[in-house]
Amino acid sequence: MLGVLYIAVLGPFLAIQWIYEDWGLRRYDNVHEIVYPIGATLFNYITGFGAIGSLVKFVISLNVNSAEGVGAILFVLFFLLPPSLWVVVRFHVLQEKKIIAKLKESDLGKAIFIKSISIE
Hints:
By secondary structure, the protein is mainly alpha-helical. The chain has 4 helices and 2 strands, in the order H-E-E-H-H-H. A two-stranded antiparallel ribbon has the order 1-2. Strand 1 and strand 2 form a beta hairpin.
């Protein structure tokens, strides 16, 4: 029942956000000097709450005491988190410097004003 309410209330907001993102509508943040899709923060919160709700329902469906539930959560996090971390580390160690070097050497990189791109 909660899932139907979740989709009925938040579904229209998600649809509008997806339309804006598909159209390429972006917002420029003067403080952080970045461009990001409009509504991305709201979308991240909505999907985050959905993921938390799914995890809670999974633990409840196990019908175990709280210590075993915490153990199940830690096992899932331990099982799923390392592969994603290795992908991120691999990108930053092996690929990021190459991509930035190609950007700086390209015609586009020379045509636009690049304030600073540095990897430490």
